[in-house]
Amino acid sequence: MYPAPLVGGLKRNGYHLGPKIGSGNYSTVRLATHIGRDGKNKLWACKIVDLAKCSEQTREKFFPRELDIMTRVKHPHLLRVHCVVRCNECVYIFMPYARRGDLFQYINKHGPLREPQAKEWFAQLLQAVHYLHSNGIAHRDVKCENLMITDDGKLLLGDFGFAKQCWSVEPPASCGTRHHWSETFCGSASYAAPEVITGQRYDPMVADLWSMGIVLFMMLNGALPFREPNMKQLVKLQTERRYCFEPLLPKTPSAAAKATIDHLLHPDPAQRIQMGALRKLSWVTGSPRHTK
């Protein structure tokens, strides 16, 4: 289930932990340096999970599942694991360090994205989620805070704490939608689909598509579409489709971009756009003109 404890500890194996740069529900993230045998240093982000402080459910179910998925997935737009080390009751997960932070931080600093940039980054998110779904994995926590920006300006989807393996192989296209229900509330309410918030049995892959719609709206608008702390009122806003773009945006998003969001933010999961249709939309398939 977990790797064998590392003999000699972190420092004797070249790993040195630096300042804290983030935290999660049951973990912290610290900047780390690894000194290789050639004497060269490399920076990593290190997620540290203290098993002794985790609940039994997390220790026995959620974290092993996260560890299994994050060490198996390999895609250019997924945050890859460099190595996993265990020392006593702590598990250290070393991953690439994204110096430019996450998408939420980027938008807070720079404001809404220009549409060509939003199209490019959304296409990269789409590639990552399609890869997961094709391998039977639902992410269940797609949000701006889990999208890291690399030094060369690429988007990486990370944090598999709520990810779920739904099947082992992609179902044949002829079978249509294959249901793989979830009942657990996962992720952040601001990004969660109405069927998740209301506690219905839901298809987690269809719920991922809603969350992608929230991310796209955030990219183009600079703010969330639904900003309501009361869960009952939040669902009311979602089901009535009461969202609109800020009136003072530098440039109004195109009709095709808005239509893509409308397809993703359909409150009825049975009528929400599916992955295959999403990948064929004109706004998604059009070539983005990258702007810095």
Judged by helices, strands and strand pairing, the structural class is alpha+beta
What is the helical fraction, as a range of percent? 25-40%
- What's the order of the H and E elements? HEEEHEEHHEEEEHHHHHH
β-strand number: 9
Separation, N- and C-terminal Cα atoms: 44 Å
Report the biggest beta sheet as strand number plus sense, adding barrel if it closes: 5 strands, antiparallel
How large is the count of helical segments?
A: 10
Q: Return the average pLDDT rounded to an integer.
A: 89
Assess the beta-strand content as a share of residues: 15-25%
The strand line-up of the biggest sheet is 1-2-3-5-4
Low-pLDDT parts are 172-176
CA radius of gyration: 20 Å
- Which shape, going by the Cα principal axes? globular
What does this structure look like?
This protein is of the alpha+beta class and 292 residues long. 34% of the residues lie in helices and 17% in strands. It contains ten helices and nine strands. The protein is globular and about 60 Å long. The N and C termini lie far apart (44 Å). The model is unreliable at 172-176 (pLDDT under 50).
Task: List key phrases describing it.
292 residues, alpha+beta, 5-stranded antiparallel beta sheet, 10 helices, 34% helix
Short précis:
Helices cover 34% and strands 17% of the residues. With 292 residues, the chain is α+β, with helices and mostly antiparallel strands.
List the helices and strands and how they pair.
Elements: H1 9-12, E1 15-23, E2 27-35, E3 41-50, H2 56-72, E4 83-87, E5 90-96, H3 103-110, H4 115-134, E6 137-138, E7 147-149, E8 155-157, E9 164-165, H5 194-197, H6 204-221, H7 231-239, H8 255-264, H9 275-278, H10 282-285
Antiparallel strand pairs: 1-2, 2-3, 3-5, 4-5, 6-9, 7-8
Helix pairs in contact: 4-6, 6-8
